[in-house]
Design brief:
heterotetramer; A alpha+beta (106); B alpha/beta (414); C alpha+beta (185); D alpha+beta (1000); A: 106 residues; Folate-binding fold; two-stranded antiparallel ribbon; 2 helices; D: 1000 residues; alpha+beta; Gyrase A, domain 2; 6-stranded mixed β-sheet; 22% helix; elongated
Chain lengths: 106, 414, 185, 1000
């Protein structure tokens, strides 16, 4: 039963107050994009066994989407941050690397 | 292979069963095999079995990170049915179901296939129309199903509460020849038969790398050394993306936890399998007497084989409402497994970007029932390069937008 | 089985008459927003998760770009017009949402019983150190969205969508029924 | 025979007798008894039958680990099977029935399995019952099912209620023994928010039974003082009868409070399931004694030495008059001493250790108890109760030896820490060779969201055998959990000094196979030493294989007594070290918890939210026949007396098309989209162009998901230059609103757009039919509603009959229609006003079915019927609603994929049967031949099919391969009965193709 802190309202929210939204930082490919790019965007997933950047919505709270860095093997949460973030923020990456020196962003 | 029978048991009983031999050998890996299967779960072992039985390919190794049958094969709710809506699904699941019917005899190992019948409850007008449609489709697919009335539902399953205040039972899709089987026995039976054919089942052996030579698979690196192969089959539900990554390609898959639970054993009170998809729960009674219960999968990526309790709660809540008598039963044990979820929730049995490397994954919450059919198709694909049962389940379908979507008629339940 | 008719309450639950509610979405950091809202309520902008109330008017922080203004129902349309006028230059959305929601008042014999009643249904932390007067906690009551705040140590107000009012009312009655006293808080 | 002792019993009150029945027989216990102690007091040795061989079973333990003594409790709507007598507090009028036997406990036919036991070894069923094939289903399986299972199935709906409770604490301490109490004291003094839970009704655990002195006083005194001190701490909560059931990720824990099990007469919930969020958890869950594996160790009267002691000390009940103790450790001697002090004869202590010494051994010796060192029990004798033991040297095959008569045997194989809750969430174990047990490995704890270990073990659960060590570990655990130095004083402990145990896994050491086939490991599931050895021999070498092949540890006690012993036997068979073999996975719950508690309050009326429109009560009063639509409940139709659904729907449609109908459309989703970029955003959401819509006008639109599939449709009204009102389907409001916010927050956050879901703010009524305008005119409107002023697909604000309203000229029926929205709080009043005013035109409320039929007569699609998540707008002939001009919209790129872009698809057409009959729901259109998998080919399917009262014949819509190019062609469909029906492909519009009726 995950516990994630909503970066907007600061509530440490129970999983049952949230809705999961899958992998984060996907780049959208629209009309004119190649079949491969579009397939990659819509279906192909990193699905790491390890650090995973993902989307959550504070459904039973402020209703806002936010992003989280979480390990899918230990379920450790390295941090949550605003959904309006094109790629993982520096401080999150540093926090992960501090705990897992050999980890790097794929 | 020592033939199993009641006579063998009586004979051994005289010697207090000191004479039984191993069910499968415990070999050390050879340097090279014609085919290697990664994953000694039901699907992997069935693939190996049919490679040998149908195509005479017996120089085969099945590599297992842990212990055989220790993944989702030994963690599911053992439901077997083939009342699927879409043609490709109905084809492979019905092939599977029909193979299950004679599997005990084929393997000389009692997998306790119990064709007790499966009811999928219709609890909304929309769901009812969906199952009526499925019944029509099944009639053309050669799958015996029938939409039955609430009274028939009650006769088949007296403990059900038809007039639930929220979702009265409007009928159900009935597959009389669906049922259950003993999950461990399926893996063990296949393992024993594979071993008897001379195949090597190598447990406690983790694959660490997949070697390719100009685009063609050549060998795998394992914790027990390098093993060469002409063909490679990846059959590792839950860790498909992880192993595919070693072979250098990505998959349209996310790994999530699926949970189940059993009650304490009670005397027989339920002779059929019931699925209530509107409320997300399904239940049957094992031969031991436990009520075997499953529900929906978690929504987030997870490799822990533990799920979130809310899903157990949602499922139990639904089933207490559907079968009020279970309220005073107790949950004995809950557990979880990791399942592959694909973009359309249907499986992948396919060639891959790597020559001679094949993958069988993405069974989501419905893999157990498919084991024999999946192994049959995967073996054919590996041996002949294509299989009518597998062709529709290729990796290319996502790029083409050619979905096989079962959610159309069924909700969560498998 | 929770046959409501057989239960007797130790915590009272009453649905309040129509409460004026205006949803305002805008960049709350803008001074003009604070000014406009103050003009209606006479109150300063609440901090995150805060609800401020005075003499029948109030402001509840709903999100970083949303507040809910509480006022007499009859005044809503006028206030919405005011907001639209005062914020004409600012991208915003002001709506009278009074009819969309139901509000319950929950009164318990003591402060602990009130928190116990809520804690049976909502996953939020209702310990006095964490949840005190002036905080609006948005969460769920069992399977429906709801928000709750304390109006006194022994009374709370809870709002939910109108369509689930009966469900929420029944839940609160079961939660506050005699024999179910927890005595945790 | 077992009996109540004249003195003793720290937990009972002999002055208050409590009567109960066992198998209908009246019995008496005393206040404070458990059902187990009361049964023993009545010399009820035989309490049940084992699972597989139906062997006689007696009480084995005194707590949660009891494998044998399970009964059915209560009756009818309060009947509960498989309840452990050892954890059932006795109450007046308790009714218990023993289980798993027929016809009776004393004479059970199933015991035939016992005589066949030799032919029924582990996994025998995998090797037989294979031929002939039908026999498994019709003969073998039914027999196995009948003899398996334990308690009877409850029949009735549960009469009790259940509830949940959410608690958030700094520290959850599980287990109220002295370690748990000490931990609570230490943490409490730090000011932490502490919750201490104990599964039994009593605090202090085993210390009082073990005769330990704490702080110079009796354990009982120290416990009472400590509990009192904790009671004074505001920040500490104590909860007894509350079991730690499970530990889950991120500090989530389940606790199972049995609120009224011990007092069913009291009003209140039966169970309360606590969902606890704890920053840190301390497991002070104690340890469980292991049985010894000797032949006949399952005969009633053979029990755990600690249990034998518990019954004497706690309940003043002796399991026998003449006791034999078998132990491989010093603690077993405690039981011998207690028995002796209670005035019982202790015939012998049998200790396989050749020359063990220690305080307790000396005490036993000086008490005159015969001690047989280096000896073992060769076999216990007796049938339904033990009559004696044959003893021999431990280092022998047990073929010869003297017999000691006795009527109770206490066995102690050492203690296993209760590591379940430590392990549930991934905590790892280490093997403690000295004590021959697994204990928590502090280096590998379960990790929480912060990546730190969040579970800490204390006391016996951490492998500490003495009270002093246990108490010290409690302080240490609190220190580790909180990061504070702990200053809380530890009481001075006076306790016996004990020597090492000898890891004896079977006795005697060289027992032959006949004996090993009578040594029980799992008493409930009838798994014996020989079964585990068989599994190993056959290659089921993984501990998981062995467990599953033999069913070791899969009984209702989940191996609390059997796992370690079984593991040791397996390791020995594999010639491996025990730690190398490893354990099976510990899964919640610690002991079984009721389904009722898990479901909580959610049953009956509050099983799920039921969403009601403002007019709901009116529909109920009219006897509406409802159908669930998502969480909403909508009238399907309003049958009158004597009408069936079909007649009612026909009447509603005829009345509506003939004059005037009324529909409660409040469930339609309504979402406001506002902002300078609203038009741009709407153009991305919809396949068609919305930005060009003029204020005051409405436009029908389609929404696809990014995968190209049609997900929702509805009418959009432009309220002003930068505000749109989006109508969604009934099911759609919430997920479409979430969908919008998703794209606004996560992809296009540069768009200046705000949305709000206003669905419930409005009650919406469709006034439909030729007389619709007349009705509104009659009510009076401040706005001109004429066809000229308010044409089709226009909207306006208006005051109608005194109601502030918003009027939309839109039609889903093909009739003249006004959809009128009024504030939800006035919805019912408005509805009743319309009903009253419409009487002169026979105004008729209609339900969802009439709505569906009328839209089908007009060929309007219905999301969920014509679409099923695999259909794209192009399939439905809705190309006109797909903008060619727009560069992009959600789903556009997906629809360019080869399979979707292909014109050669199933497309929507109408179907009419040749005889005017109605096609069956879900029928498929057959094509000649079979596919590669031998399935009949298909070329389409029916999406909607109805009887049309307007046309008095069947009408249908279908997706058919290239359908629109095949007008007039006759196709064959499945009839659902194995036959076929013919139907002709036609236009989807069956009624008023020119749309004259709606445009007046």
């Amino acid at each position: 039963m995950l516990l994630l802190t909503c970066p907007y309202c600061g509530v440490s929210a129970d999983e049952t107050e949230l809705s999961p939204g899958g992998e984060a930082h996907l780049k959208r490919f629209g009309p004119g994009s190649s079949d491969e790019d579009f397939e990659g965007y819509l279906f192909m997933r990193h699905n790491q066994k390890g650090v995973h950047f993902e989307r959550w919505r504070h459904t039973y709270g402020c209703g806002k989407w936010f992003l989280a860095a979480r390990c899918t093997a230990s379920l450790e949460v390295f941090g949550t941050y605003s959904a309006q973030t094109p790629e993982p923020p520096k401080e999150i990456i540093e926090k992960i690397q501090a705990k897992r020196p050999d980890w790097s962003l794929t | 292979m020592r033939h199993y029978s009641v006579f063998a048991i009586v004979k051994e009983a005289m010697g207090y069963h000191q004479g039984w031999e191993r069910a499968w050998r415990n070999p050390t890996p050879k340097a090279h095999y014609d085919a290697i299967i990664i994953g000694a779960g039901g699907h992997g072992l069935a693939t190996a079995y049919y490679l040998g039985k149908n195509f005479g390919i017996t120089n085969v190794a099945v590599i297992e990170k842990g212990w055989l049958g220790g993944g989702n094969t030994g963690r599911n709710t053992t439901i077997i049915r083939s009342n699927y809506l879409q043609d490709p699904s109905a084809a492979i699941y019905e092939k599977s179901r029909s193979l299950y019917e004679t599997l005990s005899q084929d393997l000389n190992y009692n997998i306790m296939f119990s064709p007790r019948g499966v009811i999928m409850l219709a609890q909304t007008e929309h769901e009812k129309r969906g199952y009526l449609r499925t019944a029509h489709a099944n009639s053309l697919q050669g799958v015996e199903t029938r939409f039955i009335t609430p009274r028939e539902v009650k006769e088949l399953c007296p403990i059900i509460h038809l007039e639930g205040p929220r979702y009265p039972v409007l009928g159900g899709l009935w597959q009389a020849r669906g049922g259950t089987a003993r999950h461990d026995a399926v893996a063990w039976g296949y393992a024993r038969a594979c071993s008897a054919m001379g195949m090597d089942i190598i447990q406690q052996c983790e694959v660490t790398a997949i070697h390719r030579e100009n685009g063609t698979v050549s060998a795998i690196e394992t914790t027990k050394g390098r093993i060469g192969c002409n063909k490679l089959g990846i059959v590792v539900a839950g860790h498909s993306s992880h192993v595919a990554d070693m072979a250098g390609f990505r998959l349209p898959i996310e790994s999530v936890a699926l949970q189940a639970l059993v009650s304490e054993p009670i005397k027989p009170c339920m002779d059929v399998v019931v699925m209530a998809n509107t409320v997300h729960g399904y239940m049957s009674q094992s031969d031991k007497g436990e009520m075997v219960i499953g529900g929906g999968a978690d929504g987030y990526n997870n490799y822990t084989q533990r799920g979130s309790f809310q899903h157990i709660e949602e499922t139990v809540r639904a089933l207490v409402e559907t079968f009020p008598m279970i309220s005073r039963l107790k949950m004995l044990r809950q557990w979880g497994g990791i399942v592959d979820m694909t973009g359309d929730r249907s499986p992948i049995i396919s060639k891959t970007p790597v020559e001679n490397c094949f993958i069988n994954c993405g069974w989501g919450t419905g893999g157990f029932k498919a084991i024999p059919g999946s192994g049959w198709a995967m073996a054919e694909l590996m041996a002949k390069g294509h299989s009518p049962l597998a062709d529709e389940f290729g990796l290319n379908r996502f790029r083409e937008g050619r979905f096989i979507d079962e959610s159309v008629a069924a909700g969560v339940a498998h | 089985m929770s046959d409501l008719s057989t239960l007797t309450a130790y915590v009272s639950v009453t649905e309040l008459p129509l409460q004026g509610m205006i949803t305002l979405r805008a960049d709350l950091a803008q001074k003009s927003v604070a000014t406009a809202v103050k003009a209606i309520t006479g109150l300063a902008m609440p901090a995150p998760r805060e609800i401020v109330e005075k003499g029948g008017y109030g402001i509840a922080w709903m999100s970083h770009d949303e507040v809910m203004i509480l006022c007499p129902a009859a005044e809503c349309s006028a206030h919405v017009a005011t907001l639209d006028k005062k914020l004409a230059k600012l991208h915003h959305l002001a709506l009278d949402m009074s009819d969309a929601r139901a509000v319950f008042e929950i009164t318990a014999p003591n402060a602990g019983a009130l928190r116990d009643t809520l804690a049976k249904l909502m996953p939020a932390d209702f310990h006095p150190d964490t949840f005190g007067m002036g905080e609006l906690r948005r969460s769920r009551v069992a399977q429906a969205a709801a928000a709750v705040w304390l109006t006194s140590p022994k009374t709370a107000r809870l709002f939910c969508f109108r369509s689930v009012a009966q469900y929420v009312h029944d839940l609160l009655r079961v939660s506050g029924a005699k024999g179910g006293e927890v005595g945790y808080f | 025979m077992s009996h109540r002792l004249p003195q003793g019993g720290r937990l009972i009150d002999k002055t208050r007798t409590v009567s109960f029945t066992f198998n209908g027989q009246k019995m008496r216990g005393v206040a404070g008894d458990t059902l187990a102690s009361a049964l023993l007091a009545e010399d009820q040795m035989l309490v049940g039958r084992s699972f597989k061989y139906h062997r006689p079973r007696g009480i084995m333990a005194s707590g949660a680990e009891e494998p044998n003594a399970l009964v059915g409790l209560g009756r009818d709507a309060r009947f509960e099977p498989n309840q452990r007598v050892t954890t059932t507090e006795l109450f007046e009028g308790l009714e218990a029935q023993s289980q798993n036997h027929w016809p009776s406990l004393e004479t059970d036919i199933g015991v035939v399995n016992n005589y066949l036991a030799r032919f029924l070894p582990a996994g025998f069923y995998y090797k037989t019952f294979i031929h002939p094939r039908p026999f498994w289903k019709y003969v073998f399986e039914p027999i196995i099912r009948q003899s398996a299972g334990l308690g009877k199935a409850p029949k009735d709906r549960d009469a009790d209620r259940y509830e949940h409770f959410y608690a958030h604490v700094d520290l959850l301490i599980i287990g109220g023994g002295i370690a748990g109490l000490q931990a609570a004291l230490a943490a409490g003094k730090l000011g932490k928010r502490v919750l201490l839970i104990e599964q039994t009704a009593h605090w202090g655990g085993r210390a009082p039974v073990d005769g330990i002195e704490l702080g110079g006083k009796s354990a009982d005194a120290w416990i009472a003082a400590t509990v009192a001190a904790l009671g004074k701490m505001k920040n500490v909560t104590l909860r007894n009868r509350t079991m730690g059931a499970g530990v889950y990720d991120h500090g989530y824990a389940l606790a199972y409070e049995r609120v009224t099990d011990h007092a069913p007469m009291v009003d209140g919930p039966r169970h309360r399931l606590w969902r606890i969020r704890a920053a840190r958890i301390i497991t002070a869950t104690g340890a469980i004694e292991r049985p010894l594996s000797f032949a006949g160790n399952d005969i009633p009267g053979v029990m755990l030495a600690s249990a034998l002691r518990d019954y004497i000390v706690n309940y003043g009940v002796a399991a026998g008059k003449c006791i034999v103790i078998a132990t491989n450790n010093d603690d077993g001697y405690r039981s011998a001493l207690v028995a002796k002090e209670a005035g019982l004869e202790v015939a012998a202590v049998i200790d396989p250790r050749p020359a063990a010494t220690g305080d307790l051994i000396e005490a036993a010796r000086s008490a005159g108890i015969p001690i047989k060192q280096g000896m073992a029990i060769a076999e216990a004798q007796g049938g339904k109760r033990v009559t004696g033991v044959k003893i021999c040297a431990q280092d022998s095959d047990g073929s010869t030896g003297e017999v000691i008569a006795c009527d109770a045997v206490g066995m102690s194989g050492g203690w296993s820490p209760v590591v379940h809750l430590w392990s549930h969430c991934g905590g790892k174990l280490i093997w403690d060779a000295a004590q021959a047990c697994f204990r928590p490995d502090p280096a590998r704890p379960p990790l929480s969201h912060d990546g730190e270990g969040f579970v800490f073990a204390a006391g016996a659960a951490d492998g500490h055998a003495t009270a002093a060590a246990a108490l010290a570990s409690a302080n240490a655990a609190v220190g580790a959990a909180t990061g504070h130095a702990i200053t809380t004083r530890l009481p001075k402990v006076a306790e016996a000094v004990m020597g090492d145990l000898a890891p004896i896994w079977i006795m005697p050491a060289r027992a032959n196979i006949q004996k090993r086939a009578k040594m029980w490991l799992d008493f409930q599931n009838d798994v014996k030493v020989s079964d585990v050895q068989l599994a190993a021999r056959e290659g089921y070498e993984s501990v998981e294989h062995t467990k599953r092949y033999t069913t070791l540890g899969m009984a209702t006690d989940q191996g609390k007594l059997s796992n370690i012993n079984g593991l040791a036997v397996l390791a020995d068979a594999l010639q491996a070290e025990i730690p190398a073999v490893g354990t099976t996975t510990f899964r919640p719950p610690y002991t079984p918890i009721s389904m009722g508690a898990i479901a909580g309050e959610a049953r009956g009326d509050i099983f799920q939210p039921l969403r009601r429109t403002p007019m709901f009560d009116w529909h109920v009063a009219q006897g509406a026949d409802f159908e669930p639509v998502g969480q909403w409940r909508r009238p399907y139709c309003y049958p009158r007396v004597g009408e069936d659904r079909h007649a009612a729907v026909t009447r509603e449609i005829n009345a509506t098309r003939g004059a005037l109908g009324l529909l409660d459309a409040s469930t339609l989703g309504k979402i406001i989209v506002k902002g300078p970029d609203a038009g741009r955003f709407m153009d991305m959401l919809y396949t068609n162009m919305m930005s060009t819509l003029k204020p005051g006008r409405c436009r029908y639109g389609l929404m696809c998901n990014e995968n190209g599939f049609l997900m929702d449709d509805g009418v959009v009204a432009r309220l002003d230059e930068d505000t749109f009102l989006v109508h969604t389907t009934t099911g759609g409001a919430d997920h479409i609103h979430a969908h919008m916010e998703d794209w606004l927050q996560c992809e296009w956050w540069d768009f200046k757009v705000y949305t709000a879901n206003v669905t419930e703010r409005w009650a919406q009524v469709a006034v439909v039919g030729p007389k619709a305008r007349k009705l509104l005119e009659k009510l009076g409107s401040d706005t001109d509603l004429s066809a000229e002023a308010l044409p089709f697909m226009a909207w306006t604000d208006a005051k109608i009959g005194g109601f502030e309203a918003r009027v939309f000229r839109i039609s889903f029926s093909g009739e003249l229609s006004f959809e009128i929205a009024v504030p939800a709080s006035q919805g019912l009043e408005f509805w009743e006003t319309l009903i009253e005013a419409g009487a002169e035109w026979n105004i008729t409320p209609y339900g969802t079915e009439a709505l569906h039929v009328m839209r089908a007569e007009k060929g309007f699609i219905m999301i969920g019927d014509e679409t099923d998540g695999t259909v794209i707008p192009q399939d439905l002939g809705l190309d006109w609603a797909i903008s060619k001009k727009k560069e992009d919209y959600l789903g556009k790129r997906a629809q360019a994929r080869s399979f979707m872009d292909n014109p050669d698809r199933w497309k929507l057409v109408g179907l009419e049967t040749l005889d005017g009959g109605v096609l069956p729901d879900g029928a498929y259109v057959i094509r000649a031949g079979r596919n590669a998998n031998g399935q009949n080919n298909v070329q389409g399917r029916v999406t909607s099919t109805y009887y049309s009262p307007t046309l008095d014949r069947g009408i249908a819509m279908a997706l058919i391969h290239n359908g629109p190019d095949r007008m007039g062609e006759v196709v064959n469909l499945t009839d659902g009965k194995g036959g076929q029906i013919k139907a002709r492909i036609c236009s989807t519009i069956f009624f008023d193709p020119e749309g004259e009726k709606q445009n007046v």
